[in-house]
Design a protein that fits this description.
The chain has 97 residues and is mainly alpha-helical. The protein contains five helices and three strands. Strand 2 and strand 3 form a beta hairpin. InterPro entries: DNA-bd_dom_put_sf, MerR-type_HTH_dom.
């Protein structure tokens, strides 16, 4: 399919997800995960260049084993910290009333 699209300057998010065979939410995640990755926006819509597609392909190949891994322990620790801060704030408010 990419052979048909090779001469385009910009590709829509739907075209890119078809080319890369990944869902749109994973594509948007990769946009944020890649340093210095910029998407062209035209009238509020995302458009990708051939270079963008190749960069994402490379990222997928290099990190296919842990591309979308999520560090749940780090998130749980962060949630615990926020809950403790909230409890401290809540007790401070009750003392000051």
């Amino acid at each position: 399919m990419i052979a048909n699209l090779q001469y385009k300057k910009y590709y829509s998010i739907g075209e890119v997800t078809t080319i890369l065979q990944i869902p749109a939410h994973q594509l948007r995640y990769l946009e944020k995960a890649l340093p210095n990755f910029t998407v062209t926006k035209i009238k509020g819509r995302r458009y990708y260049t051939q270079q963008n597609i190749e960069l994402i392909k490379t990222r997928i190949k290099e990190h296919s084993h842990n591309l979308f891994d999520f560090d749940y322990n780090a998130v749980i620790n962060q949630i615990d910290i926020l809950i403790n801060k909230f409890e401290q704030l809540s007790s401070n408010i009750n003392i000051n009333i």
